[in-house]
């Protein structure tokens, strides 16, 4: 026989839903500034500003995908075939953000390398004005997304992009001031390289986190052996097998296990103690536990994955 415990997971997994208004506000603000930066970058010939516009584009696209994922997860109950809903769309959106931002960063690095030989003239006036506006927009977007970034990998992706873009705007401002004051044109590709090198490691970390979830590896902060030993320590449990722990989406850890119990054990007490241990000690809110007689361990059809 088995039991599940998941009455709290909805509140955790729906963390992003609480921040929909903030996402929409950041989306509208950054879309406007992205268009202004792109147009100005082309007119002024600034690679640093183009880099910043590219990063802002990924901000806009990332937030758009985050909103799409949140909208999709709200419809999870409409299709009975989706027994886990559409929570994984959030993770897929985060992975797409990481891939896209990596492509943009690599492009900027390659273009900057070409420009170091003969940096072109840059119109610093419009470049400086738009960079300052971009900085202000990113500060607002950063403040809007920060609360949700602690609860959702999807929002964390958008938050990291805005953080990188905020620092990028500072770099563009510095480059414009250096060029205007000294005529040193290498400041533009140099800042573009700095922006790319800053954001790439953070992007790759986000991508690794998304891939870990997609391959259903155990959460990094949990030791599977520790969970196993704790379940074995539950009174009445003689052995634990077929233990699997994975992450469905941000903040939603899931587990399943077979508990072999001693003859005469109180099954309700065993299930209650096991669920409480998983929830309170490991923050696993959703667990499917199968209880079986100790003598039937070899007959339960366990699969060693």
From TrEMBL:
Residues 23-215 form the Cation efflux protein transmembrane domain. The keyword Ion transport applies. Keywords: Ion transport, Membrane, Transmembrane, Transmembrane helix, Transport. It is a multi-pass membrane protein. Gene3D superfamilies: Cation efflux protein transmembrane domain (1.20.1510.10). Residues 224-293 form the Cation efflux protein cytoplasmic domain. InterPro entries: Cation_efflux (IPR002524), Cation_efflux_CTD (IPR027470), Cation_efflux_CTD_sf (IPR036837), Cation_efflux_TM (IPR058533), Cation_efflux_TMD_sf (IPR027469), CDF/SLC30A (IPR050681). Pfam families: Cation_efflux, ZT_dimer. The chain crosses the membrane at residues 23-42, 54-73, 85-110, 122-145, 157-180, 186-204. It is found in: Membrane. Belongs to the cation diffusion facilitator (CDF) transporter (TC 2.A.4) family. SLC30A subfamily. This is Cation efflux system protein. It comes from Salinispora arenicola. The lineage of its organism: Bacteria, Bacillati, Actinomycetota, Actinomycetes, Micromonosporales.
């Amino acid at each position: 026989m088995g039991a599940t415990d998941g009455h709290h997971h909805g509140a955790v997994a729906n963390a992003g839903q609480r921040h929909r208004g903030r996402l929409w506000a950041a989306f509208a603000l950054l879309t406007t500034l992205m268009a202004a930066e792109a147009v100005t970058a082309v007119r002024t010939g600034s690679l640093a500003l183009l880099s910043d516009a590219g990063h802002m584009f990924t901000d806009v696209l990332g937030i758009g995908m985050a909103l799409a994922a949140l909208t999709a997860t709200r419809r999870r109950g409409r299709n009975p075939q989706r027994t886990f809903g559409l929570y994984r769309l959030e993770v897929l959106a985060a992975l797409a953000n990481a891939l896209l931002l990596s492509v943009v960063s690599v492009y900027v690095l390659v273009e900057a390398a070409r420009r170091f030989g003969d940096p072109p003239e840059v119109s610093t006036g419009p470049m400086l004005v738009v960079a300052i506006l971009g900085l202000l927009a990113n500060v607002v977007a950063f403040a809007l997304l920060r609360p949700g970034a602690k609860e959702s990998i999807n929002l964390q992706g958008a938050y990291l992009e805005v953080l990188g873009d905020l620092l990028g705007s500072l770099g563009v401002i510095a480059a414009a001031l250096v060029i205007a004051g000294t005529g040193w044109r290498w400041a533009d590709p140099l800042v573009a390289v700095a922006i790319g090198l800053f954001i790439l490691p953070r992007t790759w970390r986000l991508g690794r986190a998304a891939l870990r979830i997609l391959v259903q590896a155990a959460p990094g902060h949990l030791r599977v052996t520790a969970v196993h030993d704790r379940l074995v320590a539950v009174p009445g449990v003689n052995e634990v097998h077929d233990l699997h722990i994975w992450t469905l989406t941000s903040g939603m850890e899931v587990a399943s296990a077979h508990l072999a119990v001693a003859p005469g054990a109180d099954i309700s007490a065993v299930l209650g103690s096991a669920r409480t241990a998983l929830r309170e000690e490991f923050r696993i809110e959703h667990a499917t536990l199968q209880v079986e007689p100790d003598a039937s361990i070899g007959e339960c059809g366990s699969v060693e994955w």
